[in-house]
């Protein structure tokens, strides 16, 4: 989960820099966090299983980003949020 928090900070910084305003960045990060809450409310109903990356891992595309997560019993664990054009397989191979 620490990685996901770091990812959100980096996403906010990137969007703020590109847009020139913290408000736009905060709004997007807020929507991204809200999507994570929706994933928590619908365990196993949305998202794509990604056993090719890690056991029980799922992914869900949101905007230009991919939320990587899994369910641990009744708890959603967000592993990482990455820019969708990145090579996800290579990121997991290096871990």
Describe the model:
By secondary structure, the protein is α+β, with helices and mostly antiparallel strands. Helices cover 47% and strands 25% of the residues. A four-stranded antiparallel sheet has the order 1-2-3-4.
The percentage helix is 40-55%
Q: Identify the CATH homologous superfamily.
A: RelE-like
Write out the strand line-up for the largest beta sheet, numbering strands in chain order: 1-2-3-4
Quaternary: single chain
Q: List unreliable stretches of 5+ residues.
A: none
CATH class category name: Alpha Beta
Remind me, CATH topology?
Answer: YaeB-like fold
- Tell me the Rg in angstroms: 13 Å
How are the SSEs placed, and which strands pair?
Layout: H1 2-19, H2 22-41, E1 48-49, E2 58-62, E3 65-72, E4 75-83, H3 88-94
Antiparallel strand pairs: 1-2, 2-3, 3-4
Summary of the model, kept short:
By secondary structure, the chain is α+β, with helices and mostly antiparallel strands. It has helices at residues 2-19, 22-41, 88-94; strands spanning 48-49, 58-62, 65-72, 75-83. It has a single domain, classed as RelE-like (YaeB-like fold), CATH 3.30.2310.
